Amino acid sequence: MTRKPALAVVGATGAAGSELLQILTRHEDVWGGIRLIASPRSAGRVLSVRGEECAVLALDEDALAGVDLALFLTPGEVSARWAPVAVSRGAVVVDSSDAFRLDPDVPLVVPELNPHAARLRPRGIVASPHDTTLTLLPAVGALHAAFGLRELVLSSYQAASGAGRAAVAALREQLALVAGTELGTATGDVRRAVGEGRLGPLPAPLALNVVPWTGAVRSDGWSSEELGLREETRKVLGLPALKVAATCVRVPVLTAHSLTVHARFEDEVTVAKAHEVLATSPGVVLYDEPALGDFPTPADVVGTDPTWAGRVRRAPDDPCALELFLCADNLRQGTALNSARIAELIAAEFPR
Ligand SMILES: NC(=O)c1ccc[n+]([C@@H]2O[C@H](COP(=O)([O-])OP(=O)(O)OC[C@H]3O[C@@H](n4cnc5c(N)ncnc54)[C@H](OP(=O)(O)O)[C@@H]3O)[C@@H](O)[C@H]2O)c1
């Protein structure tokens, strides 16, 4: 007898969870029941998925019973505690947090690049990379297949929504406060006007500003997100010795992350060949006619599925290196879509 797998979305009320519900509604329906789960704060809230109204359950053991596949879009500490519970109740877990990404017994999967890895899951858990890593990987993975990647030097321009709903609320409040004022013209005036009370989870004011810090403090001046970008890229591409140096920066954009990339390869590169690779790679759109004003920006790519690539140039001093600019919707391409695609890969393992 065949049956469609039962799905639970844990974190259904969050920024990434809301995006996931839209994707489940839009994609081919491979699911039996869909259960929506969040914290006890949201229990009883009604959300729509696949055109049906569905009441949110509070996360507990009962809510996870009878689920074949559980998609976790929750803070790392919630995933760390509850994903193993879901597995013990018989579910396969796809987790979007940082709780398991670098666990050697948990595959880190980007379906365009390493779909086979999702089948080997000794802990019953598959992890999805950080949104900034996902902005990078479809394009850089394709260029690696063509030219052999040796080194990456990266700078990110990360949107507020990458830090969750509270960061979006803080940025909106700050933007309303500075609109129509002379703020931003004298040392510290934005910081004084915003005050500690309106920073939300951000370490500094974001309106009229850029903040060269995302994530938690790690040794030698690095942030957790900078080191995560390095280690996750190595893991997905299967290049444990790849040189990666990243600087992660938060910018006053609501949704869609961007990256500047300096990528050095084994072989000589040409812009024409790189264009050909990027234009034909799944999950990537090449948009690179600067003379016509055609390059990706967050405002233009928000709400779309792919990573957009533009500003492709050969490095002036190195025939083996490329400079490029990448841009993708962090909630959609960078979180929910990748999780949904991993879940669909696993759903295909169920007998039909
Ligand atoms: N935002 C991004 O661009 C992005 C990208 C990649 C990965 N991620 C990761 O995805 C996860 C979710 O991010 P987000 O931006 O969607 O966060 P968010 O907007 O803050 O949403 C968090 C979700 O987790 C739920 N939750 C919180 N505490 C819980 C608890 N104790 N028990 C059960 N559910 C709980 C929340 O439920 P309530 O509404 O009831 O509080 C909400 O549904 C995080 O691990 C984040 O690092 C996010």
TrEMBL record:
Would the keyword Oxidoreductase be found if you checked this record's keyword annotation?
A: yes
Answer whether the UniProt record assigns the keyword Oxidoreductase to this protein. Answer: yes
Annotated GO biological process: amino acid biosynthetic process
Enzyme class, first EC level, given as a word? oxidoreductase
Q: Which UniProt keywords apply?
A: Oxidoreductase
Alphabetized CDD domains for the sequence? VcASADH2_like_N (cd02316)
Q: Which InterPro entries match?
A: NAD(P)-bd_dom_sf, Semialdehyde_DH_NAD-bd, Semialdhyde_DH_dimer_dom
**Domain Semialdehyde dehydrogenase NAD-binding: residue ranges:** 6-121
Which PANTHER family would you find in this protein's record?
Answer: ASPARTATE-SEMIALDEHYDE DEHYDROGENASE, DEHYDROGENASE, PUTATIVE-RELATED
The entry assigns this protein to a family as follows: Belongs to the aspartate-semialdehyde dehydrogenase family.
Q: From the Swiss-Prot or TrEMBL record, give the protein name.
A: Aspartate-semialdehyde dehydrogenase
Q: Which gene encodes it?
A: asd2
